[in-house]
Design goal:
Radius of gyration: 23 Å
Order of helices and strands: HHHHHHHEHHEHHHHHHHHHH
Distance between the termini: 26 Å
Helix content: over 70%
Strand order of the largest sheet: 1-2
Structural class: mainly alpha
Shape: globular
Length: 429
C-alpha cells in the first residue's frame, strides 16, 4: 500500500455560513422592491378599509419602539448561536436587564441604569456559558433554568428593594420600581414637520411613505440609535473580521476550528456573555424607555419572539432586523388601535396567502398550495363577515404573526451546523 493511500488528510478549514456557495441571498435593490411592494399593499388596505392608523407616523414610531427590545434579544441569540450555543435563556436575561436597569436608573442616572441592565444580562449569559460550555449541560435545559432563576431573583429583590423606604415613597411596590428619568429623544427638525404635512393629505402611497418615514425621524430614543449601531457593528465584527470568522467557525465545526488553533471555549464564552449583554440591553430599554419603570412580567415573552425573529432572519443581522420590525409592528398595532386595525390586516393576509398559493402551485407543491388557498378563503370569509376582531385575538396578534412567519419561512433556513451540540476541549487533537 502506498504512503499516499495511508496518510491522514490535512484538516480542512472550517466552513462558515454566509459564503457564495450557500443559498442565494436577496440583493439590496430586491429588498427595496419588496419593501415598496409591502407599502403599496398596506396603502391599498388603508384606502379600502379606512384604517388610517396602519401606516401613520404614530404607528411606525410605536412599532420602532416595540421592535428594539425584540431585535436586541434576537441579536443576542445570533451571537450565541453563531458560536454554537442555543440561548433559550434570552427571556431570563431580558428580565435581569429590566430589573437591574430600573433599579440603578431611578437611583442615579438612566444611562447608568442602561449599563446596569447590560451587566445583569451578561451575568445571565455567564451562567449559561458556564453550564453549557464548561459543564456540557444541555443548552435548552440551561436556558429554561436561567429563565426560571431570573424570574425568582427579580421577584424576590423587587419585594426587598422597591417596597420600603425611599423607593416606596417614590411609587415603588413589590411588583414595580419607582419611575426613572427619560433618556432623551431625537427629532430631525423641518423634515419631521414636512412629512407630517404630507401624511395629512392621505394620498395613496405618498402619504403612507411620509407616515413611515415620519415615524422613523420623530421622537427617536437615543437608545434606539445605540441599538441600530449595534446591528451594524455585529455585521462588521462577525462577517468582516478575523475574530468574527473564528467565532462563527466554532458554531459550524468546532473540532476543525480547534485543530487550526482556535480556542473554542474562549470564543463561546465571549459570544454567550455578549449575547446576555444584548438581551439585558433590550430589557433595560423596556424599563427605561418604553415604560420608565420596572414592572413584573413586562418582558411579555419578547425574548422568545426575539429568538423567532433571529430564526426568521436566517441567523443574519439584516434578516433579524426585518423580522424584529415585523413583530414590533404587530405588537404596536394591537396596543394602539387593536380591533379595527387588526381586522384591516386580515385583508392583507388574504392577499399574502393567495400569493403563496399561486407560487406553490407554480412550483408544483400542491399540498402547501391547497392549504394556503383554503386558509385564505377562510380568512376572507372572516373579514367579510365581521367589522372587528375579538379582543383575545388582538392581544395574541404578535404571537400569531410569529407562528405564521416561522411556518412560511421554515424551508429556507439554515442554522449553524454545530448549533446546540456539546463540545469538549481536545476533540480536535
Amino acid at each position: 500500500m502506498s504512503a499516499t493511500a495511508t496518510s491522514t488528510p490535512p484538516p480542512t478549514a472550517p466552513k462558515v455560513s454566509g459564503g457564495k456557495g450557500g443559498r442565494t441571498r436577496l440583493s439590496f435593490p430586491v429588498i427595496l422592491l419588496l419593501i415598496a411592494g409591502a407599502l403599496i399593499a398596506l396603502s391599498a388596505v388603508r384606502v379600502i378599509t379606512g384604517a388610517e392608523d396602519i401606516t401613520s407616523s404614530g404607528q411606525i414610531s410605536a412599532a420602532l419602539s416595540m421592535a428594539v427590545p425584540i431585535g436586541l434579544a434576537g441579536l443576542g441569540g445570533l451571537w450565541a448561536e453563531r458560536a454554537g450555543v442555543v440561548n433559550i435563556g434570552l427571556e431570563g436575561m431580558m428580565i435581569l436587564g429590566t430589573f437591574f436597569g430600573a433599579w440603578a436608573g431611578w437611583q442615579t442616572d438612566p444611562w447608568i441604569g442602561v449599563l446596569a441592565g447590560v451587566l445583569g444580562g451578561m451575568f445571565g449569559g455567564l451562567l449559561h456559558a458556564i453550564a453549557t460550555v464548561t459543564f456540557g449541560v444541555d443548552h435548552i435545559i440551561s436556558g429554561i433554568a436561567i429563565n426560571i432563576l431570573a424570574l425568582g431573583i427579580t421577584t424576590y429583590f423587587a419585594k426587598l428593594w422597591f417596597n420600603s423606604g425611599e423607593a416606596a415613597a417614590k411609587g415603588g411596590s413589590p411588583k414595580q420600581s419607582p419611575p426613572s428619568d427619560d433618556i432623551g429623544t431625537v427629532t430631525i427638525p423641518g423634515l419631521s414637520d414636512g412629512l407630517k404635512s404630507i401624511e395629512k393629505h392621505e394620498w395613496f402611497f405618498v402619504s403612507d411613505l411620509a407616515g413611515v418615514l415620519g415615524g422613523l425621524v420623530t421622537n427617536v430614543s437615543l437608545l434606539t440609535i445605540v441599538a441600530i449601531l449595534l446591528f451594524v457593528a455585529t455585521f462588521v465584527v462577525l462577517w468582516k473580521t478575523g475574530f468574527g470568522l473564528r467565532l462563527r467557525s466554532c458554531g459550524e465545526n468546532p473540532i476543525a476550528a480547534e485543530s487550526l488553533g482556535v480556542n473554542v471555549y474562549k470564543y463561546k464564552y465571549i459570544a454567550v456573555i455578549a449575547s446576555g449583554g444584548m438581551a439585558g440591553l433590550g430589557g433595560a430599554f423596556l424599563a427605561l424607555v418604553t415604560s420608565h419603570i420596572y414592572n413584573e412580567g413586562q418582558t411579555g415573552g419578547r425574548g422568545y419572539i426575539g429568538l423567532a425573529a433571529m430564526i426568521f432572519g436566517n441567523w443574519r443581522p439584516g434578516g433579524l432586523a426585518m423580522g424584529a420590525g415585523l413583530f414590533g409592528y404587530a405588537d404596536a398595532l394591537q396596543l394602539r388601535n387593536g380591533g379595527q386595525s387588526v381586522h384591516a390586516l386580515l385583508l392583507l393576509l388574504v392577499v399574502v396567502l393567495v400569493g403563496i398559493a399561486i407560487w406553490k402551485f407554480y412550483r408544483k407543491s400542491f399540498v402547501p398550495a391547497t392549504i394556503s388557498a383554503v386558509i385564505a378563503a377562510g380568512v376572507l370569509v372572516w373579514y367579510l363577515g365581521t367589522d372587528t376582531v375579538p379582543t383575545e385575538f388582538v392581544t395574541a396578534t404578535p404571537y400569531v404573526v410569529t407562528l405564521l412567519v416561522l411556518s412560511l419561512s421554515a424551508q429556507r433556513l439554515r442554522m449553524p451546523k454545530a448549533d446546540g451540540m456539546r463540545y469538549r476541549k481536545g476533540q480536535g487533537k
